[in-house]
Design brief:
Pathway: Cofactor biosynthesis; biotin biosynthesis; 7,8-diaminononanoate from 8-amino-7-oxononanoate (SAM route): step 1/1. By secondary structure, the chain is of the alpha/beta class. 37% of the residues lie in helices and 17% in strands. Helix 7 runs parallel beside helix 8 and helix 12 crosses helix 13.
């Protein structure tokens, strides 16, 4: 279709391409990307020209180094010269073994086994399956998971079942999905003291709820400190400590879903590092390959791995076709090298300062309920549902690419975004909200 002009490409897209969370009856207009480099996307104009915008989204939070990164390009080219893929059943290779070794060196203490998966959602599927098999092998099957409202864990069936069944993105499937146990959403605010009255009340309710269902709970699953697609909700580390205490007390496992929050997105390497305890199972993805290829991983303790393996099946019953894809693993290794070389925690702290100062003016807008930042995450929460197409268009006119949802206009920019581009990005976001919502 290279001979088609931008109008023809967009017309074909509108007629035949089904985009995420979109209607085939009333599709929204997409923007045609010609290329990407650094932190900028080149959007193709109908007249054949190009309009550059700063990417405020890191391509859904994964392109942490931006685009056309020389080190990642080189890793991909080098691996293509060796092999792009081989099956992982009965075979192994250096990129996968090297990546597992790197991940375990970076992981919270106690995690010793890694299962490589295709995507973040699949890694959550694998984690939940491992928790179920762990208890089944122990002769005491448990079939339910414990979590908090407001979470999001992916779009496949098991992750959907632990996403908020009322206000979440998958409420439509309520009644079809397995029903798990949902504690109230924790009170907002990362700096709440342990004796904060709202936090104490939440803890009391949560402890009572867990006790009522303890014999059925296989694992607690939670996004540490920051709930992503469920609403960019930030809560205190004490919440994690309470959930860990309950799991330990009642023989359940703990799963940290760090797909969105891992690799310094909230500041520390793992958002869960703010808590006193480490998980039995950790899910990682998104930033793992720097946004180049889809890859995720489930990390677990030796106790979990051996417990699952002692069961009737004799192993973890999962095996994706593209598990351990050499090309993705090679790029992931190069990505982890970059994260280490760039002092990423300091880089994210710089981005956080830029987001905090640049988004602060939004608090004075009549349409804005709250402005909050955490690490390389900046959120402007409106008092009404965001008019997505209008805000997106207004931001593009100001040189910024955004993808708002619900009542949130937010940014998770690449960690390498310069101070000047952060200023442009935040001004464009605040200006777009002011233009559309006032």
């Amino acid at each position: 279709m290279d001979d088609l002009d931008p109008d023809a490409l967009l017309a074909y897209d509108r007629e035949h391409v089904w985009h995420p969370y979109s209607s085939a009856l009333a599709p929204t207009d997409a923007y045609l990307v010609e290329s990407a480099e650094g932190v900028r996307l080149r959007l193709r104009a109908p007249d054949g020209g190009a309009h550059e915008v700063v990417d405020a989204m890191s391509s859904w939070w994964c392109a942490v180094h931006g685009y056309r990164v020389p080190e990642l390009d080189a890793a991909a080219r080098d691996q293509l010269g060796r092999m792009s893929h081989v099956m992982f059943g009965g075979l192994t290779h250096e990129p996968a073994v090297g990546l597992v070794r790197r991940l375990l060196a970076l992981a919270p203490a106690g995690l010793e086994h890694v299962f490589l998966a295709d995507s973040g959602s699949v890694s959550v599927e694998v984690a939940m399956k491992a928790a179920l098999q762990f208890h089944l092998a122990d002769g005491r099957p448990r079939t339910r998971f414990f979590t908090v409202r407001g979470g999001y864990h992916g779009d496949t069936f098991s992750p959907m079942s632990v996403t908020d069944p009322v206000g979440g993105m998958h409420a439509l499937f309520r009644g079809v999905l397995p029903e798990h146990v949902f504690a109230p959403r924790p009170p907002a605010g990362i700096d709440r003291a342990d004796d904060d009255p709202e936090l104490v009340a939440w803890e009391r309710t949560t402890r009572d709820l867990f006790a009522q269902n303890a014999s059925e709970v296989a694992a607690v699953i939670v996004e540490p400190v920051l709930q992503g697609a469920g609403g960019m909700h930030v809560y205190a580390p004490r919440v994690l400590d309470v959930l860990h205490e309950l799991a330990r007390e009642h023989g359940a496992l703990v799963i940290h879903d760090e797909i969105a929050t891992g690799f310094h997105r909230t500041g520390p390497r793992w958002a869960g590092d703010r808590a006193a305890r480490t998980p039995d199972i950790l899910c990682v993805g998104k930033a793992l390959t720097g946004g180049y290829l889809t890859l995720a991983a489930m990390l677990c303790t030796r106790e979990v791995a051996e417990g699952v393996s002692r069961g009737e099946a004799g192993g973890l019953m999962h095996g994706p076709t593209f598990m351990g894809n050499p090309l993705a693993c090679a790029v992931a290794n190069a990505n982890l090298d970059l994260l280490a070389a760039r002092d990423t925690e300091a880089e994210v702290a710089r981005v956080e300062r830029g987001l905090a100062s640049g988004l602060a003016p939004a608090a004075s807008l009549a349409s804005v309920a709250e402005v909050r930042t955490l690490g390389a995450v900046g959120v402007v929460q409106l008092r009404e549902p965001v008019r997505v197409a209008e805000v997106t268009a207004a931001a593009v006119r100001r040189g910024v690419w955004l993808r708002p949802f619900r009542d949130l206009v937010y940014t998770m920019p690449p960690f390498v975004t310069s101070d000047a581009d952060l200023a442009l990005l935040t001004a464009g976001l605040v200006g777009a909200v002011a233009d559309v919502h006032g």
